[in-house]
Amino acid sequence: MQVLLLKEPRDGESGPDPYIQELASHGHKATLIPVLSFKFVSLNTCRISPRAVEAVKMCLEAEERREEWNSSVKEKWNSKSIYVVGRATAALVRNLGLNPLGEDTGTADVLSRLIIEREDRNIPPLFFPCGSIKREVLPTALRENGVPLETLTVYQTAEHPDLEKNLKNYFTEQGAPASIAFFSPSGVKFCLEVVRRLSGEELPQIKFASIGPTTQDAMIAEGLCVSCTAEQPTAEHLAAAIAKSLQ
């Protein structure tokens, strides 16, 4: 069956997208349509989420910064705890030569509990590079438990300029898919009206899937019936959930 994935391609990796591969292993053909575009900001401040890691990487593109990073700064960063919320971000962090913690937490809520358990309340503020659209789960949980945090917006999120055109082309060529997967509340915000319009009378037959509870909440708030949510935000778990919903 046809599955539409409303997500961005993998960062800095070649080869098939793991979500497409996993769904293929269940006998489904998936198509990926990018939903978001990103503008990196505050790069001079951020000297050293996957987009936040990409912003850090961009800061190191200048030769002198890369030399400083390799000679001393990377070692200093590795002497500290580097927290991430998922496997994709963890892989990008490792590419920078850093050692991530928390890649199996899956949500900001679970990650915040890990940080609270590990960190002393008298430490210098944790540094949190983030996007312009972020939920306050992590900052609020840390603040309420006395863990200091300093945030810096390093990327701004907007709708992908070709989103509506790509969706129209997909529905024209493929028709309504059996399942549509959302990967962020922003994706729900930017896509849902177009998806509803293009699906027409077939909308009730589509199985809507969510990558996690935050996105699920956004879908429910917009009146969507969520057929399945991945137990963890991974290709394996989402593909298994979608395959089950399509049985």
The percent range for helix content is: 40-55%
First-residue to last-residue Cα separation: 10 Å
The percentage of residues in β strands lies in 15-25%
- Domain count, please report it: 2
Helix/strand class: alpha/beta
**In sequence order, what are the helices and strands, one letter per element?**
EHEEHHEHEHEHEHEHEHEH
Q: Average pLDDT, to the nearest integer?
A: 89
Per the CATH scheme, the topology name of the largest domain is Rossmann fold
User: Which segments are poorly predicted (pLDDT under 50) over 5 or more consecutive residues?
Assistant: none
Secondary structure tally: strands = 10
* CATH class wording of the largest domain: Alpha Beta
Strand order, sheet with most strands: 2-1-8-9-10
Q: Can you describe this structure in just a few lines?
A:
Helix content is 44%, strand content 19%. With 247 residues, it is an alpha/beta fold. It is an enzyme of class 4 (lyase).
Characterization of the model:
- The protein has 247 residues and is of the alpha/beta class.
- The protein folds into 2 domains: 2-35 and 160-246, Rossmann fold (3-Layer(aba) Sandwich); 39-158, Rossmann fold, CATH 3.40.50.
- The protein contains 10 helices and 10 strands.
- The protein has helices at residues 18-25, 50-59, 63-78, 87-95, 108-118, 137-144, 163-174, 185-199, 213-221, 235-245, and strands at 2-6, 29-32, 36-40, 82-83, 100-101, 126-131, 149-159, 179-182, 207-210, 226-229.
- A 5-stranded parallel beta sheet has the order 2-1-8-9-10, with helices on both faces. The chain has a 3-stranded mixed beta sheet with strand order 3-7-6.
- Strand 1, helix 1 (18-25) and strand 2 form a beta-alpha-beta unit.
- Helix 5 (108-118) packs parallel to helix 6.
- The longest helix is centred in the N-terminal third of the chain and has 16 residues, at 63-78.
- The radius of gyration is 19 Å and the shape is globular.
- 30% of the residues are buried.
- The model has no long low-confidence stretch (mean pLDDT 89).
- Residues 19-239 form the Tetrapyrrole biosynthesis uroporphyrinogen III synthase domain.
- InterPro entries: 4pyrrol_syn_uPrphyn_synt_sf, 4pyrrol_synth_uPrphyn_synth, UROS/Hem4.
- It catalyses: hydroxymethylbilane = uroporphyrinogen III + H2O.
- It is an enzyme of class 4 (lyase).
- Pathway: Porphyrin-containing compound metabolism; protoporphyrin-IX biosynthesis; coproporphyrinogen-III from 5-aminolevulinate: step 3/4.
